[in-house]
């Protein structure tokens, strides 16, 4: 039987694909979305210079040791934040780190900088540093506990206890993912901002057999947002009609979804070739992922906040996406180059592409006022949010059905009946969402077990029929 997400090689799509690539590349360039600074990628640590201390009459061993320490600290401070694949940290260093788990865990839970520096100094950095740098394992562990203050200290490397060493925000760990992937997994906006501020690249991809390869931090945020209970409980994977789009827009507008959209938006702002990432989701028929990314990154897709200013040269990415969907929709209707795809699968693909077209149309027209409302009303009761979202959609010519009565909006840990209301505490809700996403379905890349250290889930495939 044909695979459900089988791609079609359309006979006349080659020139259209070239046009699309050219338009997308031009959009990226015009909107400053095609560069990521000058980050060097290596496969091993560069050789550090050997510190030399001139010996003169009157020098004693203590003075020599102090001078050597100063030279090593100077070398450590000069180490660039290059991407080094794979993680060059020796296994024995990682094993030493595991031995410190019991001491480190309560420190990171409290995010105590003072206690961390005392521990680091007491053990002379063993297990947490190697080759004049803080290990990827140490930084990843801090990110997993959302220990923002501790992470800030090792990224800066200014504390005397660190002896000039700092953590590389672009360090890959032994499992093949980067700190920014971990922060995206945790939906930690503060941690993501910290990492980006210290030079983390949003364009690093997962590598190796222990993770789904090729995932950006943006993918992690989008895919795990789609595991939210509200979306899983209310959206059928086989549904792809106008009511589905309206229901999806209403759900994404709820206050509980703000943290997930904020995380996705923050990563999208720094992700290269954003239109191509959007198009991959649309072409694969992943409507929920497409909606999350379109909704969260709409300002970036429009060309930034200056795109509406008179005389602005920035192009609207929604127009480019709509053109590409139109071409693909016509191609599917004419049946060009379907490569023997089963009629039911071809019809399903047509339906999903048309639905994506409507989704793009809704967000391109009503997305800005919807986003402005969400940002300004993060603590408004759900019923009021639903009514206001419907009114905005109607104002722009869309006629949503009344969806509130059909939605299931129970928190993860809610034990009451369907008729009873659950806790409205947004903070409790968000915490429950993060933990339950792990329990309800495997995350895109990894979860953390309390026994020793971050451990990845080995996923069979990125596009397993379960994902929409």
UniProtKB/TrEMBL annotation:
SUPFAM superfamilies: Ankyrin repeat. ANK repeats lie at residues 175-207. SMART domains: ANK (SM00248). Keywords: ANK repeat, Repeat. It comes from the Eukaryota. Gene3D superfamilies: Ankyrin repeat-containing domain (1.25.40.20). Belongs to the ankyrin SOCS box (ASB) family. This is Uncharacterized protein. It comes from Urochloa decumbens.
């Amino acid at each position: 039987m044909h695979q459900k997400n089988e791609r079609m090689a359309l006979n006349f799509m080659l020139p259209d694909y070239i046009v699309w690539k050219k338009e997308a590349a031009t959009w990226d360039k015009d909107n400053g979305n095609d560069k990521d600074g000058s980050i060097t990628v290596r496969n091993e640590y560069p050789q550090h210079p050997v510190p030399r201390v001139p010996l003169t009459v009157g020098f004693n061993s203590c003075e020599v040791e102090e001078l050597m320490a100063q030279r090593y600290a100077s070398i450590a401070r000069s180490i660039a934040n290059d991407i080094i694949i794979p993680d060059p940290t020796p296994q024995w260093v990682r094993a030493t780190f595991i031995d410190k788990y019991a001491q480190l865990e309560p420190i990171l839970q409290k995010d105590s900088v003072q206690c961390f520096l005392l521990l680091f100094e007491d053990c002379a950095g063993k297990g947490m540093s190697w080759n004049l740098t803080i290990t990827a394992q140490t930084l990843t562990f801090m990110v997993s506990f959302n220990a923002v203050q501790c992470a800030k200290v090792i990224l800066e490397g200014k504390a005397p206890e660190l002896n000039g060493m700092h953590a590389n925000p672009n360090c890959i760990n032994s499992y093949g993912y980067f700190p920014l992937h971990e922060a995206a997994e945790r939906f930690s906006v503060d941690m993501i901002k910290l990492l980006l501020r210290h030079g983390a690249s949003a364009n690093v991809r997962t590598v190796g057999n222990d993770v789904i390869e090729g995932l950006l931090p943006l993918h992690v945020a989008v895919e795990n947002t789609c595991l939210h209970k509200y979306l899983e409980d209310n959206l059928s994977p086989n549904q792809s009609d106008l009511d589905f789009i309206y229901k999806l827009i209403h759900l994404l507008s709820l206050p509980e979804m703000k943290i997930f959209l904020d995380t996705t938006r923050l990563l999208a702002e720094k992700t290269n070739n954003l239109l191509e990432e959007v198009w991959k989701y649309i072409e694969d028929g992943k409507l929920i992922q497409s909606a999350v990314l379109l909704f969260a990154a709409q300002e970036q897709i429009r060309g930034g906040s200056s795109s509406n200013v008179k005389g602005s040269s920035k192009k609207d990415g929604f127009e480019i996406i709509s053109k590409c969907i139109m071409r693909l929709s016509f191609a599917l209707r004419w049946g060009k180059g379907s490569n023997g795809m089963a009629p039911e699968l071809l019809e399903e693909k047509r339906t999903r592409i048309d639905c994506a077209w409507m989704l793009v149309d809704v967000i391109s027209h009503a997305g800005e006022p919807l986003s402005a409302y969400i940002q300004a009303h993060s603590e408004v009761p759900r019923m009021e949010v639903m009514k206001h979202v419907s009114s905005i959609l109607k104002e722009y010519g869309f006629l949503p059905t009344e969806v509130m009565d059909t939605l299931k909006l129970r928190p993860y840990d809610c034990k009451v009946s369907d008729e009873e209301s659950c806790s409205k505490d947004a903070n409790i809700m968000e915490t429950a969402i993060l933990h339950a996403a792990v329990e309800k379905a495997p995350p895109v890349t990894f979860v953390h077990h309390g026994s020793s250290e971050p451990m990845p889930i080995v996923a069979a495939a990125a596009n397993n029929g379960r994902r929409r």
